[in-house]
Structures
1.
Amino acid sequence: MSCEPVRPSKEDSVSFDKQTTWEGAPFSVTVLMKAVPASTEVAMDPVTHTIVRDGGAAVLNPYDTAALELALELKAQLEGEGVPVVVSVLSMGISATADLLRDAVARGANRALLLSDRAFAGSDTLATSYALELGLRELGDQDLVLCGKMAVDGDTAQIGPEVAAGRRWPCVTGALSVEPAPLPQMTRAALAEAGLVASQVFEGEKRRVGVPLPCVVTVDKDAAALRMPSVTGVLEAQKSQVEVRGAAQLGADLAQCGLEGSPTQVVRCCVPETSGACRLLAGSPAQIAEQLSAIVDQSEGA
Amino acid sequence: MAALKPMDETLAGYLADESRTHGAAQAIAFPVSEAEVVEVVCQVRQDASGPITIQGARTGLAAGAVPYGGTVLNTSRMNRVTGLVSHGDGSFSVQVQPGVVLQDLRRDLERKSFDTTGWSQDSLDALEAFKAAPAQFFPTDPTETSACLGGMAACNASGARSFRYGPVRPHISGLRLVTAAGDVIDLVRGQVRAQDGILALATQSGASLEIPVPSYEMPQAKCASGYFASPAMDAVDLIIGSDGTLGVITQLTCDLLPVPALTWGVNCFFSAEDAALSFVELLQEAASAPAYVPAAEKPVASEAGTSVLQDAIVALEYFDGDALDILRAQRAQDPAFSSLPELRCQERVCVYCELAASDHGLMIEAVAKISEAMESVGAQPDLSWVGTMAADRERQRFFRHAVPESVNLLIDSYRAKDPAVTKVGSDMSVPRGKLRQVMELYRSTIQASGLQSAAWGHIGDNHLHVNLLPRNEAQWHQAKDLLALWAKEISAMGGAVSAEHGVGKIKRDFLMPMYGPEGVRAMARTKLALDPEGLFGQGTLFSLELLQEEAARQGVSGKGC
């Protein structure tokens, strides 16, 4: 009989005879998750050009479930090397979203936090990022934040980079895999400095990028299929507590929350036109950002 | 007008079905309406170009759609949903032509969107009520979703969910049938019942037919073996499962059910078959009586039957160790299978449970009962996959389909070395309480034969597809002999020689041990009362010789035109 191991070890990237000296709090990974409509046939509001959320069945955004799987695989890998890891899931949504977060716990997440308050209703990506930032603070120090590259309902792909920008952390987008950079000795400082190696498809080419910790990594839908929970996992998750926090408990500035804090106006929805033109920007990250900003201003003017 | 086309090479595909049996025919017709079916039947009788073999989507596994000469009447262009019925109590039925494909019907029901061309005002009004009502579905779930409804009715198809919902029979409340005389019979469930062994049918042209009902006893098991018969049977039930031998079904009224609020799948793994069988027996005990048992004969629910599982379990499926080993090997070498979850060493055999519940709390209670049942047979509840999301259930569905697919690939590799071999698979069921006995029969005879095997299927209904995988022609004959032995032994256990595929042409010899020669002759008399010339489905259920013998006794033609 042929039989495969439970999970293949990634011996190509990590040596197992190295020393691990881990001090302090566990390595903390938080996965941002969004509840999206279960149906692929959603109605659009003809005035606001946004999705009509009628309280129908919801599921976890498939990009976010891929991020959770990468987090759980990273946890298994690091724990195999003696590093304690806590994976938290964080969402902003209606109270029913707690069931979806509990489902994430059934699959292996350790902690779940739901941000739920009328004050958060109508949030655009900026207001959502603000609320999620408050949630991340509530969860404590973070080493890594993972989230889906985008949500299947909004398609903005802005949350990950916005959270990273708010924290002034580096961000890798559209990752297909993440793993710790090879290390001779596993310590918190060494891991933070060496960081992660992520693979991504960028402009049609697959490439591997290194990123120091802490950081934000957004994940592509095809990165991994989220493991199914076991019967035991489902039953134990029912006993777990999904923490719920409102705006006041988080000390939120209401001017930055919900509709009030959302400058986005959806004028119309369309498929963007693209051209094959390519222009390479050179210089330091700050210089590149400046050039990019000028290009955006220029195109808005046009 | 549906023209009869002479068969040529471009139409060769219509001489075979999924049983990989090939036949022959001189002509083919593709009617689009009942009126055109009548024309075809009359034309064939006039030209003496019979017999007629009725075809649907040709997904059958028993060669019922394979012609033995004459004319093929293919219903695939009769593929319209023709109406909707609102019963006023929140329940609905959908009326379909026989060529409607199951997956298309599912899509239309899910979207609540139909091509309503030609619908009556009543149907259009029912559609408005349907759109406002909770989502509905047609519960019969054969693995092959490209099957058509006419074919499903013809072989009394079922599939995994028959554990809860039974086969297709109880979900069809009416049908229209074109007879060999070119007449039409419109049957509505509840309107014509057998009396004194006779079904009295009236045709649209005003003719009266007296159809004798066979007096044999149907097995108390899932059954698609020959004509349904019981003392007060409904006329609709005679046509369902008749394998295209009594007439051409031109319309079906299919009853719908509300979609359960929640559906989860649970793959439970066990280290040995014995533990899995104990687990299945516990769940059978806890669940409702199967729907194939007529209502009056349903056993009273036991103490365990009052548990939450009684309402929750929809399907119980099995995958034995041999099947999982073949899947493991395939997964290791074929990237197309790489997205399957990994199978650990201790995961030797698998029972898949599909659960439905009206709310999350009840679903969790059902999962807790599954956990208890696993523990009580010495299994570890953490060796399981629970599909709570659509993406999970899609992986579980892929797993279930990947098992037979892997076995088919393996047998293809054997056939590459010896073209004479094919997979030899069983489709037999036994009554509740006989699971251990039939498994012992399978295991002991397979071991004695030395043949390779892989078994999976609907274990909740005591209905497994045990597949024998011969490597050469001698082993193929050995496998065929083994199948015949099982038919005899399973008949003796009170089981059915075909549980869901129908008998067609390739399993007709198995009817003899099941019903005995007199039972099969009684079935032939039933056919001849509706089809005195043996026009429809020649070679299906009966050999031509047997039918002609019985026709001679009855003083009718039976020549198949």
2.
Amino acid sequence: MYRALAYKEWLKIRWFTVGAVGIEILALLYIFTNLRAILEFNNVIAVWSSIVYKNYMFFNSVKYLPLAIGITISVAQYLPEVIDKKLKLTLHLPLEESRVLLFLNLFGTMILSVLNLLLVTVLIIGTSMVFPAEIVWAEFITLIPWVLAGYLGYFFTSSILIEPSWQRKTVMAIVGFFMINIYLVDAIYGAYIGIIIPLLIITLLYNYLHMLPGFRFKRGLK
Amino acid sequence: MIFSAKLSRYLIVLSIILVASVIFPEFYSMTFSHSFSSPHVYYSPVKKIFVKTVSYKREIKRLDSKGNEYTREEFERLTPLFSYRQLLYRNEMPDSIDGIPIDISLMRLNNIFITIKPTDVYRYTIPLNPLIESEPGRPDLQMPDDFFRITDKIEFIQCYSNKVKVKLSKLFNDALVNCGFNFPAKKFFGNPSTRKPFDEGFFIVDNNNNLFHMKRVKNKPYVKKVILPEGIKIEFIKVMEMNLKEFYGIVITEDNRLFLLMYDGYKFVELPSKGFDRKKMKLVFMGNQFYRIISFFAKNSVATFVTDRNYKLIAENMEKWKTDEDFTVGKIADFIFPFKLEFTDVYNKYVNFNFTFSNSSFWIINLLFLFLLLFYFKRKRKNFTVSQSVDLIIVLLTGFYGFIAVLLIKDDD
Amino acid sequence: MENVVEVKNLTHYYGNKKVHENLNFNIKNGSIFGLLGKNGTGKTTTINILNGFLKPTSGKCLIFGEDSYRISPKTKARIGFLIEGHIQYSFMNIIQIEKYYSKFYSNWKRDIYYELMSKLKVQENQKLSKMSCGQRSQVALGLLLAQDPDLLILDDYSMGLDAGYRRLFLDFLKEYGKGENKTIFITSHIIQDLDGFLDDCVILDYNGVVLQMPIEEFKTKFKMYRFNSDQQELISKDKVINNFEIIKNKITVYSFEDADKVQKHLRDKGMVFNNFQNIPMDLEDAFIGITGKY
């Protein structure tokens, strides 16, 4: 039964996923061609120096990409459910309701993970061809909070969409905005190194964020 | 479903508390806080007293420890070594100080100004550095075309190709091994810029906390082990190449002591460090022909120590001033906000959960909110549910923040 | 199981507004039950409680013995429900949607779905979003019939449908209802189609339940009388007269009492009238009679 559910979810988001892959490819192309030009037209040592000492992040343009993708996938998944309260159809299926809600969430996060994996892997591999491991590692540590922000964007968007009351939607939007900002602070390479594990735990816990809105939707609470 | 919903509720409540503890204190501070600038403290070789410049109501006052005020010109005459440009311009430069005739170029040679901020030390650094050729055979220094790393061995990586320079790396590695270097390196201290008179390479702390000095001399290694004083563990070295060639740089140890690492036999000369907290204070080292002036700047104080050129302490000064916390504005904040959360810190470049707990009796305000909530619950029903009790505890612990959180996301039971 | 649905002392408030107070009714196994009433009388609330998307303020609503707001998955498989407006996932086409739902129900009857689909003039890969209201309603119905549930809850099946599709829908429903142990719960504000279809009903008006009885009984006992009189001011709603209408000197009254009792009641009030007639009603007339035209 869950396979059928996955099928339906995929039908909703498949073109958005393809679009996201497309945008990621475009972004990666831009980053690496730009990097090539920078290395070609500048003193290579000066580029290394600006990375090591001046915090130059040639991959900076993807900072908000995981977040944008997270929000988009969530909208693609949940907006059709929320319009005309179609989520009722899914919750009426002969399945345990909390499992259904968690499954929908899991499906979305799996897609996000594939997209994020693609982005990070290509970035890392590309970087390692031109820069040593220390710079690749610093880049990786810097990317992680941005990727986690994408998941948060997904969780908060789902919760806001499912939540029936406007007052609570607003509260969650405000809270989501500030929480996500924590993951996207303007900082130097490796600034997040002490806080990565706690942020990861928080992100994992937020998988349950949409459960209260889901419960309130089911009970008809306002 | 109910369990997940409750978990979700507490997630949201805690998130609101977290966000509230960030934005409310910040908003309050943006609205009400004032800036309190620290005075700049100088030691006059003319009168042998401390003089300071203070920002007062948008104008600068120049005072001494007794409170006497000086005009700008008087002040400059009191601090000739610091204000020599202005005095020369007005032809007021004295011929001698303490019997020693003034020579402008000698004076310039001896003028030193070094700052070390906690954010220079407490930050993630990418462990790659360029080892500049220290005897280039030309007047200007040039950046090398490689960066080195020291992991289980030293490797010089050619920047253009991103490949290791095998021969050069082996050469340097043998030199390090011969000197007793224990891999991997823990810390690197140097000045990776070509805008300096000459280059002294890097001071490197190895895996056994020993210190080594490494330079690139005609593309060959110069490595020397530096004997550390008893019990010293190096936290940071600010390397500063100066034509004076008295010391390589300033050393900060893990127990807040300060040293100069001298050219003469790598001796460590201790500097006054009374009250120095390397994690929270800015260190300013000023030097001139006669004195060494060391200042520690904290949030609401600056301590200044003056030594002679033999590093014997001759004078100390302490300036303290009030900041927001000491005024009503700060006291009210302390009262309403049981704690505040910041993710960045002025003292380091990390992102972290930085909680500052109020030290006043915020429990009173917490209890007030607790009673408000109690009253609100009682209006709704006679007995308390388990979840309402939990809510009350949350408010007791987090006061104002918990109060809004618990009311915004009321339990739907 | 005698009663498929049991509503006991159901009370519900929307904020401070009372929607139901101590509503009580049962739906027997195999019956066709109608919840009738004008818009705004609490039909939607009742349906939401019944289909499990609203927890009542107090009281119970039991379906197959379980609280309607937390029905077990096994029991959910036995309940089919039609959301008002024939809401279905419009991003799927008729093939995808059948394939999707079939995976959830073990008794899935594919044939009846496709029989219904063959009557629609739609392409196989046509998304529901690109269909007309009527076509969508057929898809929704087809899915429900294929599910073959023991209890079918239909919230306003007639919404947005023209006469043709309404009839088609009802025809299939009637066929379905003839099956064993099939219970149907319908709400509607278009009454005429339901005449001859419903077994039992509850009628709501703005003050609550105005009637609760089997349809046959309602149609036989509830009567419409017409007469002429100039004393319009003496007419009012009371124990005998449920409702009345006055057009010039033509007065129409509705009552559960027989003709003699009503005439006596009018005379007791001091009314003078003539041309007293008992006018036969169909279900819609009776409905308007009991709820009023406004």
